[in-house]
Every structure is written in structure tokens, then in C-alpha cells.
Specification:
2 domains; 7 helices; 21% helix
Length: 363
């Protein structure tokens, strides 16, 4: 018995030392002196839809897609081609594969290759989609307790990528208004993570003067289960599914995100039919200081949200809305609620000084 206890204690000690070593090595981070948050300001209003070209609108897209990969660790049973076909049947024109810490090859067309992966295996699920990298950065803080650790990750990933999406903030441990008001270094915020239609975490960042566009993705792991596929999507005004076109559009802002309904509740024929005839935007833009939007069908309501997540305007039972931004409005964005439960999220219009920079985005 004594021998067993002695062996057990030795194994326990070695295990603890290994854990402490791993935690110490993965805890390396710069410490930041963050700038004080400040609302958007300036004489001009940034219009993310300034390059709207109806000839290229709209292409349905999902950017957060998991598939089967080689090796024992898998979060999806289906290979890339099978997953692509499942999404294609539901009307998706653009599908990128974002497996954890692995760049996945496009299953049939090299011209449609998009180098993107989901970074992060930390305990708090502080995950990011990293676009445009040639290789995977495998460093991660196992316990990203502090905002400076998260900022360090964003900065590290940003050095070897084209742009970054911050994934599912409401499912990330430690997400707070304070942290969101400080973090920079990402260009896109993932919306509609399944817990809320309000996107208040996006407004926390926007209200602090941190501009980002929004994407809503399935974060797909189960293409064979109706409740997990085609419940979110994005519509891009882009000429093709090639990476250079996608990159330009995602960094330009000419797209909107959408929360969908699980049509048919298991009846796939209904799901296919409804996804082929979704409500959509017919127009959106900026006229002088007035932002406007119109939709293909009458919406239950169209809401304009601004600084500190406040409702600036609300229009009911209409297929159009507009709002004139005053000088004290740092930003404004549209949310459209449809009768069957679909929701459209526009990208934000924000104040800035066009003589200083091209967009309100500042890293």
C-alpha cells in the first residue's frame, strides 16, 4: 500500500509540474497600455455600402465551417466535399473551411482556395478566424484571463495574416464590456452566436470607437442535422468566390449578415425551398447624413441602433426605413426583423475624418 501511495504521489507531482510548465510557457504575453476608449467622431460618415454594385449582389456565404480532417481529432464527421455539397444545396455560393489550427485545401477547385483557420485551443474558447496566412500559428494562451493576453494573441496573429475575425464573443469565457472596449486588431466581429439577437457585445466595441464589420456564420460541425446548418449566413456584393474578391469585399464592408429560421423543423424539402426564397435587401446606403435601407418584403420592424446599444429609431410594418445621423451620433446600424423570424444585420455607418483616413478602423 505504501509503495502504491509513493508511486501515486510521484505521478501526481510530475503531472502538476508538467501542467505548471505548460501554463507558464503558454502564459507569455506582452503587457499593454491601452488607449482610453473614445466614440467615433469627425465631420464625415463612413458608408460601408459606398461601392454597392447590384450586378454582383448578393452571394450567400458561410466562413466558419468545420470538416473532417486527417488524424484522430475531429469535430465533424464529414469531409470538405460532403460539407460543401450540403451547403450548396441550401443556396450557399461561398464556403470556406476553417478547421481548428489547420488550413484545409479546397476539395475541387484550387482557384477557390481560401487560407483560413480557426485559431485557439485555450480553455475559455477565445477563438479567431485567421485569413490569408500561409501557415498556422500554434501559440496560444491556455488561460487567457487578462485582456492583454487576448490583445497579444490578436497582434501576433495579425503579423502573418490579411485580417482576423473575432469568433463567438458571447461563448467566450471572460467576455465583458470592459474587455470589448479595449481590444483592437480584428477587422470582423462574429455575430449571432446563438444566445442573443441583440449583438450588444458588438455595440460595446463600436461605442468605444473600435470599428469592425459583422459576419454571422453557422460555425458548422453537423451538416447532416437540420437545426445546425443554414441557421445563419451572409450576403456579399462580390464578383466571385475567389479569395482576392472575397478579401476586398470583407474589408470594404459591402455585405450584410442574417439570422435564419430552421425551416421545416426536419423537413428538408421545406428547408431547401425556404432558403431559395429568403427576404433580402433591395437597397442600402447613405444620402448626405441620412442612412437608408429597403427590403424585398415588409418587415415586422426595422431598428436603428447606435451608441451604447441605444435604439435611435424604430419603424414597424414597412419595407423601408431611414435615419438622419446627427453630429452627436457616433455610429448607427440597421437590424431588420421579418415575420417568420429571419433577422438582417447591416454593417455600421460611423463618423470619421475622411481627410485623415479611408475608414473609421484604427488598429
Amino acid at each position: 500500500m505504501r509503495k502504491f501511495i509513493s508511486v501515486f504521489l510521484k505521478v501526481l507531482t510530475v503531472t502538476v509540474l508538467v501542467i505548471v510548465l505548460v501554463m507558464s510557457l503558454s502564459g507569455v504575453s506582452a503587457v499593454y497600455d491601452f488607449q482610453k476608449p473614445a466614440p467615433f467622431s469627425g465631420p464625415d460618415i463612413f458608408n460601408p455600402y459606398r461601392n454597392l454594385d447590384t450586378a454582383n449582389c448578393w452571394k450567400k456565404a458561410n466562413f466558419h465551417t468545420h470538416t473532417r480532417v486527417k488524424g484522430p481529432l475531429n469535430e465533424c464527421e464529414y469531409w470538405p466535399m460532403e460539407t460543401y455539397e450540403a451547403l450548396s444545396k441550401l443556396g450557399y455560393d461561398i464556403v470556406t473551411f476553417s478547421n481548428h489550427n489547420e488550413i484545409t485545401t479546397h476539395p475541387f477547385d484550387p482557384e477557390l482556395q481560401v487560407n483560413v483557420y480557426e485559431h485557439g485551443y485555450n480553455i475559455f474558447k477565445f477563438h479567431k478566424l485567421v485569413f490569408g496566412s500561409e501557415k498556422v500559428n500554434r501559440f496560444d494562451n491556455i488561460l487567457p484571463l487578462f485582456v492583454f493576453q487576448k490583445q497579444f494573441q490578436l497582434d501576433l496573429l495579425g503579423k502573418d495574416s490579411d485580417f482576423i475575425q473575432m469568433n463567438h464573443p458571447f461563448r467566450t469565457g471572460g467576455t465583458s464590456e470592459k474587455q470589448m472596449s479595449l481590444l483592437t486588431g480584428y477587422e470582423i466581429m462574429e455575430l449571432d452566436s446563438g444566445r442573443t439577437l441583440e449583438q450588444e457585445y458588438w455595440d460595446w466595441a463600436l461605442s468605444a470607437g473600435h470599428y469592425s464589420f459583422g459576419l454571422a456564420n453557422d460555425d458548422l460541425h453537423y451538416p447532416d442535422r437540420h437545426e445546425y446548418i443554414a441557421v445563419r449566413c451572409n450576403f456579399l456584393c462580390t464578383p466571385s468566390a475567389r479569395y482576392e474578391d472575397i478579401k476586398k469585399t470583407l474589408l470594404d464592408g459591402c455585405y450584410y449578415s442574417m439570422h435564419l429560421v430552421d425551416y421545416g423543423d426536419g423537413d428538408w424539402s421545406v428547408k431547401y425551398e425556404k432558403n431559395a426564397h429568403l427576404p433580402y435587401l433591395t437597397d442600402i446606403g447613405l444620402r448626405d447624413s441620412t442612412i437608408y435601407i429597403s427590403t424585398s418584403i415588409v418587415a415586422d420592424s426595422i431598428r436603428v441602433t447606435g451608441q451604447d446599444h441605444k435604439v435611435l429609431a424604430l419603424v414597424t410594418s414597412s419595407d423601408k426605413a431611414e435615419y438622419t445621423m446627427g453630429k452627436d451620433d457616433p455610429y448607427a446600424r440597421f437590424t431588420v426583423f421579418f415575420p417568420e423570424g429571419e433577422v438582417i444585420y447591416s454593417n455600421p455607418f460611423a463618423r470619421y475624418d475622411a481627410s485623415v483616413r479611408e475608414t473609421p478602423y484604427v488598429n
